[in-house]
């Protein structure tokens, strides 16, 4: 964005109003609680970020075969993939989190070999179920996106690669998948921001992320607006970073 575009009248008015709001918040609201809760807030912020990164990466890796199965797969692969995406997209994420946590979480303690395994110290905690739920949710939405992305790739390029004897996996890795990802990069950026805004739901199963920290401040200090405003600022900063990263990635990907 150029300086001329930045200093247009409506943007100047927005910046002035924002500056006035920031000054009012700094002078009128109560911020003395921040030093006490700063370590917990940093821990919650870190947990929010790593949950977001891990679930988006794992979810996207799962979305690729889901989209491919729906685009070209035989019916016995396409139908389960379509059913999975439909169920995930058609049910609330909060319900999915609760089903996994209160369902699997209450079932595993009744299985002796699981209680005696090395995985039990992790399975008794809440965060694995939160990661699993968010991963499946991201995969369900992105699986449908990747289905459209695979279908939109120019078939002439695939036919040309096939006529030259290029192995199918090589053709998928070098032509089909990169072009499909390039076509959906703006959508992936938006879905990643939506995933960020879904992370507060894991606080309902006792995962202490940044939203849970703000809730604790409200309950301990009886302060309502200040932690919520700071929480909104954190989310805006993270969303802005995600937008910039995806925009940079889009600009670095060749158009042909």
From TrEMBL:
UniProt xrefs under CDD domains: TM_PBP2
Any GO BP annotation: amino acid transport
GO MF terms held by the record: transmembrane transporter activity
InterPro entries xrefs: AA_ABC_transptr_permease_3TM, ArtM/GltK/GlnP/TcyL/YhdX-like, MetI-like, MetI-like_sf
Annotated TM spans: 12-29, 49-69, 228-246
Protein keywords: Cell inner membrane, Cell membrane, Membrane, Transmembrane, Transmembrane helix, Transport
Annotated ranges, domain ABC transmembrane type-1: 45-246
Name of the protein this chain belongs to: ABC transporter permease
